[in-house]
């Protein structure tokens, strides 16, 4: 044994250097350190989480959040993703508390020095990174199930709320076999626990699978459809990390985008498998793809892949670009390669690097081997430079053929691109025509600034559309006559929903960037009067909302409200207020969206009905269904007074579910009078 003689802390670098009296011999040794840590209030490392028992007592649980660099707050370690180890964990805890860690419990014995404590010993973990280690000590109930492939799945919930864990349990039990099958690699552990924690900074803690309560708990009576969907996506995302992230881990934080982008893409694949009725891929376009394009068109965007020097930079680069643009370019890549070769490449990658570390290039390499396509060359243009292209297209009829001319330029939210350099992308282009709007007539890789294509046997009256399925990460600007010919295909719904959404979103963004006139967009919006699809409406509604905000406090504000009422009232009348038999998940989401939009715009019948239902709800005569609460709340507040606001604040105070509290907090800003807005602001900072 050699005893250390000195400890030198380098606090900025979060390092400690140990000095020994003589040079240590080469070879294997064991370093033993006694240490004391603090159960902190920083919501990172090993921290305490406050909760209230059903009887109203305040208590604390102890939980962990180590990603990216906070394992070192809990115990001394080489806290880098590439330095993997096995972990033998024991926790000494009060005997009436639940203690959980990554592995199953192998021993539980009384603690010699204190009869109120027990020592809980867990099995040795597989080889893994420090940021994946987790411990939780608290009071929980659980529900459990076995997945088809025999893994024991448990969802831990606050005491008395076990019922609310059932939905997440069902999703997890379906998801594990799906991923096992998709990657053709079994789940590496005997069990998995999903734990709902009251205050959780990450929203979803990748890795021991601790979650914010709202991300895991569903109350069959009081949870709305969008909450269910969110829970399903979060569970799908976190379980994907068990393969992509945990079994194979990124070499260094520079490659974190791949971990997150990949999980953010495959969570949709998994939910689509579990709940085909959610039409989730169309929602992906509205939630991730268009959001990423909005941010990535700004001059202060950044590439998906950012070199990380000091680990403290990790939090700065974890943003919607890493998640949403990451997921969007992986979706484009999957489409470009095709599902079969993509799965082959994924399996190659996961088997080659299991229990090890890998860099982005290693994945490209495996996918290139499986597909024979130039994956690295294509993907580098999307991950190593910021932004994305705008593709201008015009068509010319030549006898029975259409000749298309395509030009790519960087798309900028601030107007046409005028930079000195000409950034270029390798763009997988797909083209469909009115012959078959769901099938690509031509697929080609655009690897230069301009491209001329000939589409054979296309009659003059047939339309042509780029970016089938809105999968390519680019925007399209059509020549006026090409755009004109697409409008009937929106009206008669022959263009699929995701293509209708993309077309409208591109146009709106072009108008926002000052490249085309807003009038052109509003004309196209009128073509959506027969639109049945929730996600398409949702995107349309956001865009009209932006316009409405721009025009507030101007002479045109009233006119845009009239336009909103004109666009939304036909669908509002078709849907009505109450669910009809046989309706699904998406109808519930659409009804909430449309009624909220009409109510906010001051549609007379909607406003009166909302007030009537709100009164019944508050008096306890007839409780509003979860899906109608947001639209009703927002409508009565927007056209309400101080009494309405006081009632809402009272409902907030009485709410038992976090979901309902969040729902009320989101709508309080709708109140109109300046002195009440001040009151809301004070409440927000209280």
From TrEMBL:
Annotated compartments: Cytoplasm
Broadest EC class assigned to this enzyme: hydrolase
Keywords assigned: Aminopeptidase, Cytoplasm, Hydrolase, Metal-binding, Metalloprotease, Protease, Zinc
EC number: 3.4.11.14
Site location (Transition state stabilizer): 323
Family matches, as Gene3D superfamilies: 1.25.50.20, 2.60.40.1910, Neutral Protease Domain 2, tricorn interacting facor f3 domain
Entry binding sites for Zn(2+): 237, 241, 260
Annotated Aminopeptidase N-like N-terminal domain residues: 3-132
Peptidase M1 membrane alanine aminopeptidase domain span: 167-382
InterPro entries in UniProt: Aminopeptidase_N-like_N (IPR045357), Aminopeptidase_N-like_N_sf (IPR042097), ERAP1-like_C_dom (IPR024571), M1_APN-typ (IPR034016), Peptidase_M1 (IPR001930), Peptidase_M1_aminopeptidases (IPR050344), Peptidase_M1_dom (IPR014782), Peptidase_M4/M1_CTD_sf (IPR027268)
Sequence ranges assigned to domain ERAP1-like C-terminal in this UniProt record: 463-685
GO biological process, alphabetically ordered: peptide catabolic process; proteolysis
Pfam families named in the record: ERAP1_C, Peptidase_M1, Peptidase_M1_N
UniProt family annotation: Belongs to the peptidase M1 family.
Stored PANTHER family: PROTEASE M1 ZINC METALLOPROTEASE, PUROMYCIN-SENSITIVE AMINOPEPTIDASE-RELATED
Protein name per the record: Puromycin-sensitive aminopeptidase
Organism listed in the record: Atlantisia rogersi
């Amino acid at each position: 044994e050699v005893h250390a003689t000195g400890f030198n802390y380098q606090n900025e670098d979060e390092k400690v250097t140990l000095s020994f009296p003589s040079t240590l011999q080469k070879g294997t040794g064991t370093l033993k350190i006694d240490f004391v840590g603090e159960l902190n209030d920083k919501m990172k490392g090993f921290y305490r989480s406050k909760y209230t028992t059903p009887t109203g007592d305040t208590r604390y649980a102890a939980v962990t959040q180590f990603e990216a660099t906070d394992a070192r707050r809990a115990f001394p370690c080489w806290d880098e993703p590439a330095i993997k180890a096995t972990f033998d964990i024991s926790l000494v805890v009060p005997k009436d508390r639940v203690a959980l860690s990554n592995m199953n419990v192998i021993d539980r014995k009384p603690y010699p020095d204190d009869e109120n404590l027990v020592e809980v010993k867990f099995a040795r973990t597989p080889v893994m990174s420090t940021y994946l280690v987790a411990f939780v000590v608290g009071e929980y109930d659980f529900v459990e199930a076995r997945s088809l492939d025999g893994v024991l799945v448990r969802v831990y919930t606050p005491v008395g709320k076990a019922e609310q864990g059932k939905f997440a349990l069902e999703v997890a039990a379906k998801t594990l076999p799906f991923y096992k099958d998709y990657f053709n690699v079994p789940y590496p552990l005997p069990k998995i626990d999903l734990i709902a924690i009251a205050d959780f900074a990450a929203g979803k803690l990748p890795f021991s699978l601790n979650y914010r309560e709202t991300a895991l708990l569903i109350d069959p009576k009081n949870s709305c459809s969008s909450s269910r969907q969110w829970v399903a996506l979060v569970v799908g995302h976190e379980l994907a990390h068990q393969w992509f992230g945990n079994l194979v881990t990124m070499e260094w934080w520079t490659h974190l985008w791949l971990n997150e982008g990949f999980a953010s893409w495959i969570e949709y694949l998994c939910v689509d498998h579990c709940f085909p009725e959610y039409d989730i891929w169309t929602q992906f376009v509205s939630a991730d793809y268009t959001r990423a394009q909005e941010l990535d068109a700004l001059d202060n965007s950044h590439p998906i892949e950012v070199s990380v020097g000091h680990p403290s930079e990790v939090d700065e680069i974890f943003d919607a670009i890493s998640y949403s643009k990451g997921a969007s370019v992986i979706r484009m890549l999957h489409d470009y390669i095709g599902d079969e070769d993509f799965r082959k490449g994924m399996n190659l990658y996961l088997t080659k690097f299991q229990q090890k570390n890998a860099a982005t290039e290693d994945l490209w390499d495996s996918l290139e081997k499986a597909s024979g396509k130039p994956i690295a060359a294509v993907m580098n243009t999307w991950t190593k430079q910021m932004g994305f292209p705008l593709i201008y297209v015009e068509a010319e009829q030549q006898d029975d053929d259409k000749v298309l001319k395509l030009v790519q330029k960087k798309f900028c939210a601030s107007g046409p691109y005028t930079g000195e350099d000409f950034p270029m992308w390798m763009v997988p282009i797909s083209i469909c025509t009115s012959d078959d709007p769901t099938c690509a007539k031509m697929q080609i890789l655009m690897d230069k600034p301009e491209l001329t294509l000939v589409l054979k046997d296309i009659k003059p009256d047939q339309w042509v559309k780029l970016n089938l399925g809105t999968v390519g990460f680019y925007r399209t600007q059509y020549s006026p006559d090409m755009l004109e010919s697409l409008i009937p295909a929106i009206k008669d719904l022959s263009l699929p929903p995701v293509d209708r959404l993309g077309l409208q979103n591109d146009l709106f963004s072009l108008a926002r960037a000052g490249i085309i006139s807003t009038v052109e967009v509003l004309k196209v919006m009128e073509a959506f009067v027969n639109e049945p699809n929730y996600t398409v409406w949702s995107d349309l509604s956001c865009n009209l909302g932006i316009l409405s905000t721009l025009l507030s406090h101007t002479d045109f504000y009233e006119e845009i409200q009239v336009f909103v009422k004109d666009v939304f009232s036909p669908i509002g009348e078709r849907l009505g207020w109450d669910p009809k038999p046989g309706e699904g998940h998406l109808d519930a989401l659409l009804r909430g969206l449309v009624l909220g939009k009409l109510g906010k715009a001051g549609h007379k019948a909607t406003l009166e009905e909302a007030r009537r239902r709100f009164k019944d709800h508050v008096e306890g005569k007839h409780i509003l269904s979860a899906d109608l609460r947001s639209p009703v709340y927002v409508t009565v507040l927007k056209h309400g007074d101080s009494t309405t606001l006081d009632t809402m604040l009272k409902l907030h105070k009485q709410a038992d579910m976090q979901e309902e509290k969040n729902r009320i907090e989101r709508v309080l800003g709708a109140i109109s009078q300046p002195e009440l807005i001040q009151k809301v602001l004070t409440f927000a900072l209280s």
